[in-house]
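In this supplementary section we document a worked example of the pipeline. Step one takes a protein sequence of length 256 as its only input; no multiple sequence alignment statistics are reported here. Step two produces a three-dimensional model, which step three serialises into structure tokens for compact storage. The input and output of this example are shown verbatim.
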Amino acid sequence: MSLAKSVQALFSPALTLVLRTSLISSAPGSAYIETSSPSTRLVVSVHGPHPLPPNTPYTPTLQLNIIFSLPLSSGLHHPRNTPGPSTQTERFLATRLEALIAPMFLGHLFPKSGIDVNLSVLEYTGKWSLLALATNAVSTAIAEAGIDVVDLVSAASFALTANGMMIDPIGEEERDALAGGVVGFMASLGEITDTFLSGTLKVEGDDDMDVDDGQVPFGEVIKAAVGAAADARLVINHALMGMVKEKGLVSKESVK
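The serialised model returned by step three reads:
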């Protein structure tokens, strides 16, 4: 199998990743994430858990309210989004993000309560990479907000092209891909939360799922994507350690 990018691409000098917390002082949890080559930038704020409105039907578990706001324009391949109701792309991203992050919450502890997750995208190149980066930023903001979870979710995007598998594909690589998507992973528990796949896969046998060209076994795809998601968790941990150090929650010596 030919890997056009290493699973370490997340830490490659060609793809610099910046993740910061405490960007929005009015939010209990917030995060800013940015990549280069090419650039994707977004800001996340988290509020809650808070009681749902009195006229809301009783819900025995936590409700997530996720709002994706894409930029009015971003690069050459994304049409202008006029102000107003959420677009189809924004609703799609919100739905997929909820599937990726929902398993980390202890929802039964917060009946008839909600968490608001607002994502303001400043710039992006592809939907798969944007979704993975958004997952990592939301997990970081959730941790800063001190919301009880079973684990944090980190994510990585991937694309299968004629040249093999790519981790963290850019928009052009997504458009040319035979298949691809995003994998969410809880590293401490060793569990996949959700796998979003786009493209065509076929089952060659009971234990063998291949892409159409038969070159890349499905199991190897998921293994490589999970490895990249585990690497992303290290970036989240580093950002959170920097946050507790900045807030004086631990001594400088204890985080060395």
